Amino acid sequence: MQSPVIATRFRKAQVSTTILGAGPIGLATAYEFAKRGEEVTVVSTSRNTGKAGEVNAGWIVPIMASPVPAPGMVKKSIGWMLKSDGPLRISPVPHPDHISFMSKMLRNTSKARFEHGLHALSEFGRGTLEHFDTYKAEGVDFELHKTGVLMAFKSEKELESHYAEFENSERYGLKKVTRLTGSEMREIEPGLSQSVKAGLNCSDQYSINPTSLLEGLRSSCEKIGVTFFETSEDIYLKENADKSTEVTFGSMKVSGDHVVIAAGVQSRGLMNQVGFDMPLKFGKGYSLDFHQETRITHALYLSEAKVAVTPTNSFLRLAGTMEFGGNPLKVNPTRVNGIAQSSAEFFSFPIPQQPKVGMGLRPMTPDGMPVIGKVPGTSHVYVATGHAMLGVTLAPATAKLLAGLIFSQIDSEHLVNFSLTRF
């Protein structure tokens, strides 16, 4: 049972674990901990910090759990960056930290490093679909679609370049990907245009309305006793000499036994407060939401456009682009238009001129894998961030890994793969 708030110089709420961040990772962790009987408080900012939790594609795709840096990425990236509206942009930021990060990412495009990351993420993603089924069975209320993901290609050559990535899907407990002709793709999705020449069917993958997942997890957390604070004030973190933790914001102090930092790209600054730094940068992406006249029923990946398409009960979402550097909160109209124009070629219906535009900052590491574990130099401060485009997919697995580490001292190969000190 939680202690009452005490009116002193600071109002105190004594809890066992304080979680910083209320995105998919933070809420999944709060839910997992509270189910185990732990006392949990979640503290998050109300500021516009480019949160990606509500504007992502909402895909649950363990079959696509691969690092962002990949073989051939450099050659492809040059072509993309020559186009002002292409799917990738790297701003020329003359700062040593930015240059160092991009250099480390470049080194991680080797085949050996990519295959190591692919295996690590695929193993970590085992059971992902079952985790979300469990959420449903436990009464977490969110919009879930089990219609799979269709990958659309304008050429057989483009398909071949992707097909090999899924050859080992059965090794990780997933269904084998099936090849489709353009005609077969249109039989499944009549809204696809004649430009689609081939496709892949990832039939056992899921998609969600991202906002509904956040709302559902928060509601379920509240029902089992999790306390939430949202603040516009700066959030400060420290670990005391007696190893207890303190999180302060405005006139509030939340003291407890553990802190979990799960604040996306803001996690780096919070780790800095307890004396640790690591390479973590934002990868900006955009979403375009609009009402669809022609009903798309499957999540789609438009390969040449590098755009994810997610149908929900109330809108169709297009999500894409990756921007490194520049103003983190500025919306670039050229990039937004690029998503719409490149996607339009795949559809037999026009995309509305004024969709609702969203922007989010993905937390990126140089090797494209998350960081999960205890923050070096601390006793009871932990972090879970850097999931790139897999935050929704890997949220439940991340929560379970942290729970095992903190409450049962369970060691895991995953903790080695996702160690904070690997850089």
From TrEMBL:
One of its GO terms (molecular function) is oxidoreductase activity. Residues 18-404 form the FAD dependent oxidoreductase domain. Keywords: Oxidoreductase. The keyword Transcription regulation does not apply. This is Unannotated protein. The keyword Signal does not apply. Pfam families: DAO. GO terms for cellular component: cytoplasm.
